[in-house]
Amino acid sequence: MTAIEYNPTELLICTAARMMPDKTTAFIGTGIPLLAAALAQRMHAPNLVPIFEFGGTGAILERIPIAVGEENTFHRAVAASGICDIVETAQRGFIEFGFLGGAQIDRYGNLNSTVIGDYHHPKVRLPGSGGANDVGSHCWKTIIIMRHDRRRFVEKVDFITTPGYLDGPGGRERAGLPPNTGPYRVVTQLAVLGFHPETKAMMLLATQPGVTVAQVIAETSFELLLADPIEENPPPTAEELRILREEVDKERFYI
Amino acid sequence: MKILESGSGKLIQPPDIDAFREWNRQKSKELVDKRMSEAEAVSRFIQDGDYIGTELYGTVRCPMSLVREIIRQGKKNLRLAGQGVMELDLLLAAHTVKEIDLTYVGLEVYGVSNGLRREVESGRVETVVDWSNASIAWRFKAAAMGVPFIPVRSNLGTDTFRHSAAKVIECPFTGKPICLLPALILDVGLIHVHRADKYGNAQIDGISGFAAEMARASKRLIISAEEIIDEEEIRRYPHRTIIPYYLVDAVVHAPFGSHPGEMCYVYRRDEEKIREWVEAAKTEESAQAYLQKYIYQVPDHQAYLDLIGRERLESLRYSGRES
C-alpha cells in the first residue's frame, strides 16, 4: 500500500478520534477535539455523546460548529440547557472525557492558557481559562491536544490556568479536586504521552509515524519517562482521511 | 469555618445580598408596557461606572444592538463580567471599560485579540481579574439564589484561583478543601432573546447559556428581543418563560439584534462582517475607523441594519427550521 499524505492537523484529529470510545460522554470545545469527535461518531463511536459548555448535549455532528455556543453544538441534540447545567453535570461525575489545549504544559500536565511571562506584566496575554479550568477540574480523564516543542513543553508553566496533577502524586486530592481525575493523554504531532500511575509524571507512550524517540525528547524541556516498549502510532487510514476531508470538514475550515 | 487560602484578585463588586433583597422588594411588580428604543433603555438604565454583564457571548445571541448603543452614548468607567468575545472587544476599543472580571478574551477561531492589551497598557483598564467560565456563571447563580457565595470544585490548586477573588475553605461537612465563589450582583444585565411581550416576559429557543442566572442576578435588566409577542402567547405557554417580567426594566425590539453574530433557528452568523472586525481590531486606528463606520455615524439600530443591507440580512436567515 502506498503511503497517503496527510498534514499535522489531520494526524492530531485522527489520533484523538481513536481515543474516544463509543457510548460515553466527552466535553468538547471547538477546533481539533470537535473534528475528532465528529470523525469518531462516523467511525467507531456512533453513540459518542458530545457535550458543549454552553448547553448542547448529544449533538449529531453533521455540521461543524465554529463557536462553542453556536447552533451546531445542539444540532439534533438530546438536550439544550445552559452552562451551569453542563458544568454541574461534569462536577457530579457524569462526564468521562474532557479535551483541552494550551500554550504551555509541564510534566504533571498543568496547563497555561492565561499569560506568557509575569501575570501583571505579561509578555503575551493569552485568552484566559474560558471553560478550561472547569473541564480540567471535573472531567474524569482529560486529553490534551497541543503542538510539541521546547517552548511549550516546559519545566514550569508561567501560570497554572488548568490543573493537571499539580505538584505530583496526591496533589489534586490535597487541593480538594475530585479523586481519580486528571490528565490521561497528551496528543501532539510527535507523540502520544500518558502519565505514570504512581509518580504522575509525563511518560512517552508512542511516537507518531516517522518520529524518533530522540526527536520527542529533544522537543521536551523536562525529563520524560519512557514506556517500555514505546509503540509507534499507525498513520491515519485512507478511510479516516476520506471521512475527515469529504464529510467532517468539507469546507476545510480547520484542516 | 476555616479559610485555607484567599485569592489575591480584587473583588470588583462585593455582594450585598440584603441590599439586593431590599432592591428587589421595591421593584415594581406591575404589568406595564416597558417597550422603548435602545437609546432610551441605555440612557435611563446604565450609568457611568455601573457594573454590567452581557449574555450569551460575542457571536451567539448577544445583545449587540445594546452594546453598540452603550458605545454610541459614550458610557465611561464601566465595570463588567466578560466571557468576552466580540462584545467585550468593541466595548474595550471604545474606551468604555475600567474593570473586568474576565473568563476569556479573544475571537475564538480568529485567535487572540490585542484590544485588551492596548487598554491595559494605556491604563484605561485598571483591573483585570481572571475566572473560569463556569465560575462567573455560578457567581450569577449565587446572586440568583440570594446567597453571598457558592461552593464549587473548580479553580482548586491553580493560579486561576490565586489571582481570583475566591476563597478556599475547609468544608465543614467533609473536611476537604472547597472553593467559595462570591455572588455577583449586576447593576445592569443585558440579554437578547427570541421573543418577549411588552412587559418583559421572555422566551429563548435552544441553549440558554446563563440567561436564567444572569437575569436573576441583575438589579436592572434590559431585554432586547427579535420579536415582540402578545401577552396571550406568553400565557398560553408559560413554561417557555425563562425571564419573568418583574425582573425586566426595558424591552427593546431588536430584529437582527445579535448581528454580526447568530440567533439560533433564526439567522446565521455573518462571517464576512465578523472578519471585518477581526481585521479592524488589529490596530487602534482601524478599530476606531470601524467604530466610526458602524456605530458613531449610525444613529440607531435601524440605521445599522440599513447600512448592513436588507438583502444581506435576509440571506443569513434560516429557511424554515433546519435544526
List descriptors.
heterodimer, A: 255 residues, alpha/beta, Glutaconate Coenzyme A-transferase, eight-stranded mixed sheet, two-stranded antiparallel sheet, 7 helices, 24% helix, B: 323 residues, nine-stranded mixed sheet, four-stranded antiparallel sheet, 13 strands, 34% helix
Provide a short characterization of the protein structure.
The complex is a heterodimer of chains A (255) and B (323). Chain A has helices at residues 8-18, 32-42, 83-91, 132-138, 171-175, 213-218, 238-248, and strands spanning 25-28, 49-52, 56-57, 79-80, 97-100, 104-105, 111-112, 115-117, 122-125, 141-145, 182-187, 191-195, 202-207, 225-232. Chain A has 255 residues and is α/β, with parallel strands linked by helices.
Q: What fraction strand of chain A?
A: 15-25%
* CATH architectural group of chain B: 3-Layer(aba) Sandwich
CATH class of chain B: Alpha Beta
CATH architecture of chain A: 3-Layer(aba) Sandwich
What is the CATH topology of chain A?
Glutaconate Coenzyme A-transferase
Low-confidence stretches of chain A: none
Count of alpha and pi helical runs of chain A:
7
* Strand arrangement across the biggest beta sheet of chain A: 2-1-5-10-11-12-13-14
Describe this structure in words.
The complex is a heterodimer of chains A (255) and B (323). With 255 residues, chain A is α/β, with parallel strands linked by helices. Chain A has a single domain (8-248), classed as Glutaconate Coenzyme A-transferase. Chain A is 24% helix and 22% strand. In chain A, strand 8 (115-117) and strand 9 (122-125) form a beta hairpin. In chain A, helix 1 packs across helix 2 (32-42). The two termini of chain A are 24 Å apart. Chain B is an alpha/beta fold. Chain B has a single domain, classed as Glutaconate Coenzyme A-transferase (3-Layer(aba) Sandwich). Helix content of chain B is 34%, strand content 23%. Chain B contains 13 helices and 13 strands. In chain B, the strands form two sheets. In chain B, strands 2, 3, 4, 5, 9, 10, 11, 12 and 13 form a nine-stranded mixed beta sheet that branches. Chain B has a four-stranded antiparallel beta sheet with strand order 1-7-8-6, with helices on one face. In chain B, a hairpin with a 5-residue loop joins strand 9 (186-196) and strand 10 (202-203). Chain B starts with a strand and ends in a 7-residue tail after the last helix. The model of chain B has no long low-confidence stretch (mean pLDDT 95). At the A-B interface, helix 3, helix 4 and helix 5 of A face strand 4, helix 5, helix 6, strand 8 and helix 8 of B.
